Amino acid sequence: MFKHLPKYTAGIAAAALLALSGVATTAMADPVKLRISTPAVESDWHAKMLTVFKDELEKKAPGQFDVEIHLNASLFKQGTEPAAMQRGNLDMAMISAQDIAKQVPAWSVFTAGYLIRDPDHQRKVFHSDIGKEFYQMVADDMNIEILDVGYLGTRELDIRGDKKIETPADLAGVKLRMPGSDAWLFLGNALGANATPLAFGEVYTGLQTGTIDAQDNPLPTVKAAKFYEVTNQIVLTHHLVDAIFLSMAKSTYDELSEDQQKLVHEAAEVATKYNNEHRIADEAKLLDFFKEQGLKVYEPDVAAFRKKVQQDYLESDFAKDWPEGIVERVNAIK
């Protein structure tokens, strides 16, 4: 096509065509596929948060990422996501401090009751040097990159019967359902109750029949699972400000360019803020909802609960794995 051009000019034209061809090839490169697995249902803010993450990436980097969101544990069962990311079978998931603590014992500090005060404190802690240190532990020991922290909810007590609960002593003999792991059962006992392991799917019937007397969960879960139909009171102990960590397999993360890594962190921050704002607003509205359903809703002597729970943890085997001074450092963040 360049035969009628002078030799020198034809060479420049050919080089230009090759350069353009390279640009076109780069532009048409396959997008980075990111498969996300979550047990969340479509109506959950955590599920909607993932769509925000996807949309934010597409807005900032059109065509660079292909984000697949798999809800309802349809891709991997709840709790198996960390291992799937470590094996290279999954790109992204939302994991808990309890999940992490199974492999990184120092993380059990964030499963302890009354350490994180509220959602704002949670975000400040994990956006501080403390967060950087603990995220690095996960990267080093689990080969997982944490992108950002999201608010899962503040766990409260949901109880059958009319006995008023003011202090931990009032929970003596109360069969409090907890998830069946050592960390969860320890928390239930530290609150003063008789912690009883029971699968989540059996909680409604357990409360209905009296197999258990109480359960603990964030208020949106209490509503979604309709536990309020078989209980009489919500006791606002605020004993655990729970978190989820939007995470990526390090094998996937390390293959991204520096610009792409920056983009996924920024998208994660937008997504977690979206989740937090909506979940906090929902929790505030739910207090009136439960009162309308006929439940008593009140706050006990939270200071008495905090004192007992923190003391129990500090004297436990869990605390032996905590970095020296970590409780004081977390408490110092305002």
From TrEMBL:
Record has Signal as a keyword? yes
Gene3D superfamilies the record matches: Bacterial extracellular solute-binding protein, family 7 (3.40.190.170)
Q: Where is the signal peptide?
A: 1-29
UniProt keyword rRNA-binding, yes or no: no
Which BP terms in the Gene Ontology apply to this protein? transmembrane transport
For this record, an example GO cellular component is: outer membrane-bounded periplasmic space
Listed name of the protein = C4-dicarboxylate ABC transporter
Species for this entry: Thalassospira mesophila
